[in-house]
Amino acid sequence: MKKRNVVLIALYDLNSFPVCTLHASLKEAGFSVNSIFFKQLNPNNTMDSPTTNEVKALIKLIKDLEPLFVGISVRSTLFKLASKITEEIKKEVDTLVIWGGVHPIIRPIQSIQFTDIVCIGEGEKAVVELATKLSSGEKIDNIRNLWIKKNDKIIKNDLRSLIQNLDLLPFPDFSNKNKFLVENGNVLNLPDSEKKTSYWLMTSRGCPFNCAYCSNNILRMTYKGKGKYVRRRSVEDVIKELVYAKRKYKNVSYIAFEDDVFTFDINWIRKFCCQYKKTVNLPFFCYCHPKITSEEMIRLLKDAGAKDMTMGIQTGSEKIRHKYFKRYDTNEDIIRVGQILRKYKINCAYDVIMDNPLETSKDKRETFNLLLKLPKPFELHTHTLTHFPETELTNLLLEKKMISENEVEDQKQESYKRWTPTLDLRRDNDDLFWDNLYYLAKQKYVSREFVIWLSHNSLIKKHSKRLTLLLRLMSANIYTIRRGSKIDTARWYIISSLLKIPKYLFQRLQAKIPSRTPRV
Fold first, then answer.
1. Which pLDDT band holds residue 518 (cuts at 50, 70, 90)?
2. What kind and span of H or E run contains 97?
3. 193-207, 224-238, 314-328, 484-498: range with lowest mean pLDDT
4. Rounded Cα–Cα distance for residues 352 and 367 (Å)
5. Which end of the chain is more exposed for a tag (fewer CB within 10 A), N or C?
6. Residue 314: which H helix or E strand, with range?
7. Residue 91 contacts residue 61 (beta carbons within 8 Å)
8. DSSP letter string over 191-224?
9. Which pLDDT belongs to residue 192?
């Protein structure tokens, strides 16, 4: 009998669902599992590049653990880092390396060039079978879901059917036992999980929608004919996990449901809300979608404990949303759900995609106009359009020569530096102008009339960067702009100075400031 240790690696993700679920699956099958979390996200969700010492510390730890194999969860943004780490492992440690995750599924031919094995589907059964055969000295050539590089040839095994009964999977292992964190050149024990105050979980796999910019777009095609793509755990199984989490993690006071869309099945929601309120009864977060979210859903979720929700707008241009994003909701749908969320006093955040080469100034104004119609207050997440490999939108932009292969995410790694950037000075002047306006449109204490006036001001547009700098300075405290206020006179004098507005224009600017702030 050979050794039975396995090492799993998560990159920049302390709450990695794939790694924590595989950890639980392997442990349930009797293997000794060590999970290594290589670096953390910064508070603003950006990533610092790893140092040479951090990579060395990771390799030494793997060497000391002497694993049967090393599994790395790979996203497109981290493709180059995974390649580098794998190269260093192969130099120093006598072990196999397997890649899993979205990127290897989407680009298996590219990925297999850098590693020994690629998992081209869901990993739980395949990884346990791999560990079982390696530990008993059996051949691994015919394990479904795995591509295996052997003697300069690639064995391409068939894809398994999708796991239909998600209740059969163990709960993700979020404990800190046999978990390590590599950060700042050091190997640390994972922070004490007993002190965690929030608990993340997923109740489903697969998204009911097929947005052209999302990795679900290509995954849905990959799994065609392999079973139902959207699957959901039973309410009983979800409640069982949450009861377990409350018992194990005594300080948990908030739940986050990380499903792509939580509100896609009213019958499930009805049953869930009833049981959740009785047995869990903690405030929670979830994602909703404007096309399928009803007032009944929101009322039930609010009564069960819903405190915060995020909804995708992506753009206020229905042309862009329908034709290019393949999202078929309307602005009326978005406003309707926004009003319902406000009615039930649920904190709402909206996602908007920026830096889109297909959008014109007219499209951006439509987004601005939509934001002005949404009930305040709300949060706004302005994402940069990330060109994930092989998606319908990425392929279209490549075909139109609006982007190059170097701008696809596995090469550009855009998300290292920006994920939900607001008031981002790296934007071009036009996008930065609208970034400023989107930011002001959500502010409760800035009048609608004033923001509209700014949106038509060519001088403001010309000096977008200066306005961004000013808004950054003021962002901690946006007050109602009232004509005649000494504070606001001083504030707007600073604005005029930063923007280098002549004195006579500054006086005209003051005259445009509304005397009161009407509700939007």
1. very low
2. strand 96-100
3. 484-498
4. 8
5. N
6. strand 306-314
7. no
8. P-GGG--EEEE-SEES-SS--TTSHHHHHHHHTT
9. 76
- Quote the radius of gyration of the chain (alpha carbons, Å): 25
The strand pairing partners of 69, in sequence order, are: 96
Rounded to an integer, what distance in angstroms lies between the CA atom of residue 445 and that of residue 341? Answer: 20
**CA distance readout (Å), 196 to 185, 237, 243, 266, 286:** 24, 22, 15, 31, 19
Instruction: Indicate left, alpha or beta for 361 from its phi (over 0: left) and psi (-120 to 50: alpha).
Output: alpha
In the DSSP assignment, the letter for residue 324 is: I
The distance in angstroms from the start CA to the end CA of the chain is 70
> What does residue 256 show for φ and ψ, rounded to 5 degrees?
-125, 115
* pLDDT surpasses 50 at 75: yes
- pLDDT single digits (tens) 8-60: 999 999 989 999 999 999 999 999 999 999 999 888 778 889 999 999 999 99
Amino acid making up residue 514: P
DSSP, residue by residue, 119-181: E-S--HHHHHHHHHHHHHT---TT-TTEEEEETTEEEEPPPPPP---GGGSPPP--S-TTEEE
